[in-house]
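Table S5 (text form). Sequence records supplied for joint modeling of the two-component complex.
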Amino acid sequence: MNHRQKISIIAGACLVLSLAASSFVLHRADQLRPQATLDEVLFLSSPKVIKRASLGYDGLMACIYWTRAVQYFGNRHHYEAKSYNLLAPLLEITTHLDPHLVVAYEFGSFFLAPKPPFGAGEPQNAIDLMEYGIQNNPDNWRLYYDLGFVYYTELKDYKKAAETFARGSQVPNAHPFLKVLAAQMAQHAGDYDTARMLWSASYQNSHDKLIKQNAVDHLRALRVDQDVEHLQQAVTRFGERTGRLPASMAELVAAEGLLGTPVDPDGHPYKMTPEGRIELRVPKDFPFVTKGLPPGYKPLPTFDSPQP
Amino acid sequence: MRTRIAYIASNTFREAVRDRVLYNLIAFVLLLSGAAILVGQISIEIEKLVVINLGLTAVSLFGVVIAIFIGIGLVSKEIEKRTLYTVLSRPVRRWEFIVGKFFGLSATLVVNTFFMAIGVFAALFYISHKFVRADALILLALYFIILEFLIICSLALLFSSFSSPLLSAVFAFSLFVIGSFAEDLRNFAAMTHGFTRWLATGAAYLVPNFSAFNVISSIAHEQPVAAQLVLQNTLYALFYAIMALSGAVLIFEYRDLK
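The corresponding structure-token record, covering 566 residues in total, follows.
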């Protein structure tokens, strides 16, 4: 082995060893300061400054900020955070960099509006974001739909929701159901049918698996809520007629002339407690139900906005 | 005359290739393929947007860097190596040398852009599994980027004709940045009065305006570009490049090379 080869081997070994050692030390140092790489900092918070600093490459910068917003939300949501302080500024920067990035408005409002830990609990910021989106993309009917959805689900402002759906229905090529939604919202805002219509529309008009699954979960929960309500009314009627509670679900079914034992969307029969309360057999399979839950039951958190 | 210019241009191109300029293509391919795979996992519904935005931005930035750093050395390197004296001792005029260098560098950038364009379309196909008609607009964005390169090449040559490589790089890069803010400069001019307005407006028209060439973001959203803009951008780039080249020729003609 000549001198040069010796030097090469020693230098190569030193390179590999020092790289491994520095990575190991850095990893240890990161463990000492777990938030070191996750500091909640926006070094530049002005969308105008960032747009100028991008030297015209604002499209790429918008994609980077959008990815940052998604990662920020995902991280905070994962740890069931109570605050999402950077979410609205990140979305504002993203949409100012690229006002036509429709996905940032659609998902941004979905992240901003629901209460923590499901979202940032900032419905007003979600509304501002959507209004900015509509201002820049006035022909996109989906933005009106999403805005109406925020008014309906988060603020329970049925009048505003109806107005927004009506505005959206006037956009060229708008989906015809916006007109129906506007009318339905004006007359029967709190009905199951209205909620069902909204979640069905949400399912049909999204390509995203997460949003589709969310809509399915809500539709399942709506059916359970409605079933439980009907069965509970049947128990009350039975009590009024006979002066006692039904002894079993079978007795209730026979008295009401039902075709069979009522089952939830998964096929499990509803159960009736000795106190005459109708309950789900497996409540954990229905994260958004509001009725039919055992007393004191807390639904497991899942990715979503609360039910209307 | 045409043969001489073509000869200098082909030599400039060969020299750039020999200087391993096209190695940047490897970095480009790694960047684009990495982004195409990674973004789908860490973001939502912007895979195609990222490939177009990142691809075209990289084409543009890599090209600008090549144009500046090769362009600034085109004249000074020849003086330093004393090869310029050999060239000029033959029947080659000084202006032919400058124009030949310009065409050589432009050809390098066009070839580089061509390979990068293949990369962009390959990444796009990987993401979408098909091409749609709107994807053809990417070719237009690439055309505008090439026009941008022509201006930068000519500016780099202009500075190279009288300044040191370091200062030329600073000047050329500063003009690229100022050119990206040209519309703001024009807006500032509109807010002033009298002599200041005249001066600011003059400055706004003197520096290159790159903002009109940047259609990457709108093309990523499949928004069409007006045919009139294509024509005007082409003419603007040609006139501006001719202007800067004329300046380079003028300076180089009177430069004392002893």
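Note: Chain A has two domains: 47-190, 191-308.
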